[in-house]
Amino acid sequence: MLNKTDLVPCSFVLDGVPGLEDLHLWISFPFCSMYVVAVVGNCGLLYLVCCEDSLHRPMYYFLAMLSLTDLVICSSTIPKALCIFWFHLKEISFEECLVQMFFIHTFTGMESGVLMLMALDRYVAICYPLRYATILTHPVIAKAGLSTFLRGVFLIIPFTLLIKRLPFCRGNVIPHTYCDHMSVAKISCGNVKVNAVYGLTVALLIGGSDILCITASYTMILRAVVSLSSAEARQKAFSTCTAHICAIVFSYSPAFFCFFFNRFGSHTIPPSCHIIVANIYLLLPPTMNPVVYGVKTKQIRDCVIRILSRSKNIKSHSM
Predict the structure, then answer these.
(1) What is the pTM of this model?
(2) Distance between CA atoms of 206 and 213, rounded to whole angstroms?
(3) Counting beta carbons within 10 angstroms of the beta carbon of residue 271, is it exposed (0 to 12), middle (13 to 18) or buried (19 or more)?
């Protein structure tokens, strides 16, 4: 007979990418490069939004929320993955695993919510331009961001409770680079049906409702843009949405792959492929969002050029 304490491991072992152990070092290079770009790019965006008065507008406040969320997501997973790839530091305590799981799922849910808020922002800006500043006031933006965060917290807390109730008598090796909810649950010898059902419910509640709001927003945006008289006005109106559309594609494409793989493709697609895509799902949006917004948004480009020219002038005067 085993006590409950015998069935709860003190630590787990994150196995990296099983089947590709010999390639761990090579896999780490693109992961590390993307992580550096993500940290530098998102910290740069946060600095610009905080320090540049021209960016103190609702659109850029939501962009700052997205950057902060992306920083938390990639920093919760990639440093540990690099430790596994470079130094074979695979052990993670049970409590650290639960904390990592909480942060990953809470902030991926918040990222989806922020993308939905940004779609509503574009809808108000295009369909109600004269009332834009009066509708999206600072208190409204703060309450929207806080409610998105709290939604993730209250829906993800049960994940940790559902994991804590499970017995782990099959070992403690997780075939992954981070503590994903179902990856941890699958190594349990208990009944994980509740975990699977609740995980699916949360995915549908967060992802389904956000995608529905994004789709409705862009349907009304498209209707408003098409009704504009001149082609130049239509192009200008829709060009303000291109960066956000790219962010949606980068966020939801790998998410859909991971979702359908877990439900339908686990016997046909190699697990190593799933683990790599799961990491890309957490790393691609933080890497690409600042690049896309920096390239596509004129105001951000102008701020970067102004800061660079200012620093160049300071250097020339000091010499």
Answers:
(1) 0.93
(2) 11
(3) middle
